[in-house]
Amino acid sequence: MIRFVCVRRSGARGEARKEHIMLRILRYIVWAILAILSVAVASVLLDERSNEETVGISTQSSGIGAPFQLIDHDGASISEKAMEGHPAIVFFGFTHCPEVCPTTLHNLTVWLNQLGADGKRLKVFFISVDPTRDTPQMLQAYIHKFTNRITGVTGDPGDIDKLTKSWHVFTKRVPLEGGDYTMDHTASIFLLREDGILQGTIKYGEDAEVALQKLRLLLSS
To answer: CA-to-CA distance for 123 and 87, rounded, in angstroms?
Structure first.
């Protein structure tokens, strides 16, 4: 009888040990699930934060530019209204530019042709940072060496200076020998959605396929 009781108690301890092990395994499983959920939640939060930052950049960029009254390469008055209601490309440069501007205008001409009919929706503006020398006639002759699909913009030097600052475009007059000068300036191409928000830029020397993809994305926005 005593022996029977001892065996039964030993069996109870074994069952208790099994239950303890099972509970421990269950806790490990629960902890693992919680860890996985924590990682997943953290990933979602990071993605949302990244999206918010991206949207924030786009929202802030809507403040770029300012109203202006200038002259196009035909001598007609032009304002910021010309850039509204359609996707637009804006580039700041000057006709005496030795490399950056002619290269950029050449690239823009090639890209517009490659975009075909879709590219006709794009309005392109070449704004002079050297209005003292860049008369409407000079702008027209210079731009038409590349294409007739780009609108040249010039005007009063003070008004041009205000416009470049509103676009956060860097410009600097650099003296040369013999009393001549050149202009250092921001070389990026600005891409504007039809609602006026800056979608992005094409940097000078950007890969052609990447640039085309940005233009196609602009057209689809």
So the answer is: 7
Distances (CA, A) of 158 to 68, 130, 161: 11, 11, 5
**Lookup: tokens for 135:** 């008369």
Report residue 221's pLDDT band, with 50, 70 and 90 as the boundaries.
confident
The DSSP code sequence of 39-53 is: HHHHHHHHHHHHHHH
Residue 128, pLDDT above cutoff 80 = yes
Tokens of 203: 């940097």
3-state secondary structure of 23: helix
The pTM of the full predicted model, rounded to 2 decimals, is: 0.72
Which of 218, 220, 190 is CA-nearest to residue 204?
A: 190
CA atoms of 175 and 173, how far apart (whole Å): 7
